[in-house]
Amino acid sequence: MMAEIEKRIGRPFFPFIEYKSITLPPMPPIVKDVHNFMDSLRNFNSRETDVILCSPMKSGTNWVHEIVSMLLHRTTEYNSHGELNYCNFECQSDWDRLEKMNSPRFFHTHLPMEYLPRKHVENGYKIIYLNRNPRDRAVSQYLFLQGKTGVPPMTWNEFFEKFVVNDTIYGGWFTFTKQFEKARVEKRGTVLPVTFEKLKIETIQTLPGNCIISWNFS
């Protein structure tokens, strides 16, 4: 997903932008005014029919986005709402455009639970919580960052110290996982947990079409 965004916007992928205790990739709206962006996201007017896919970087976001988008819109067409980053919260600068989208709207983000739209969380609207084994994800992220515009060359040990031990990108994998595991336990009816590993083995059973369409996980 991020490679597609970087190619489209033609901007460096580094350095990251600091916001409170986390860092964010330098997407245009984030670079312009990260505080205004985060406020706009938190105040976004979610609908009951909205679905938000939440995942750490390099956890299968593209894959799940395509599957769920097809199921929600009952089609075999790819990217039924346009390019993937049009549905990515971190790339949004025109929130009015999102307001005009027809339901069901499908968005995705790498941010932890605490930064999701307040209305979406407080009303228990639909969330797909996608995660991946942290070891595999770390290797994938290391390879992904190599050669990206603005990212300094680094050894695996340097990457591990900066992006695993002291991970702050989107708040880090551990923060993300703790928050969504807590949400999964407290609001099991509105949070659908999905793992990259299980999806590879049992795709249909992990994301059954009838459950996505009706949003019934019982």
TrEMBL record:
<dbReference type="InterPro" id="IPR027417">
    <property type="entry name" value="P-loop_NTPase"/>
</dbReference>
<dbReference type="GO" id="GO:0008146">
    <property type="term" value="F:sulfotransferase activity"/>
</dbReference>
<feature type="domain" description="Sulfotransferase">
    <location>
        <begin position="49"/>
        <end position="204"/>
    </location>
</feature>
<keyword id="KW-0808">Transferase</keyword>
<protein>
    <recommendedName>
        <fullName>Sulfotransferase domain-containing protein</fullName>
    </recommendedName>
</protein>
<comment type="similarity">
    <text>Belongs to the sulfotransferase 1 family.</text>
</comment>
<dbReference type="Pfam" id="PF00685">
    <property type="entry name" value="Sulfotransfer_1"/>
</dbReference>
<dbReference type="InterPro" id="IPR000863">
    <property type="entry name" value="Sulfotransferase_dom"/>
</dbReference>
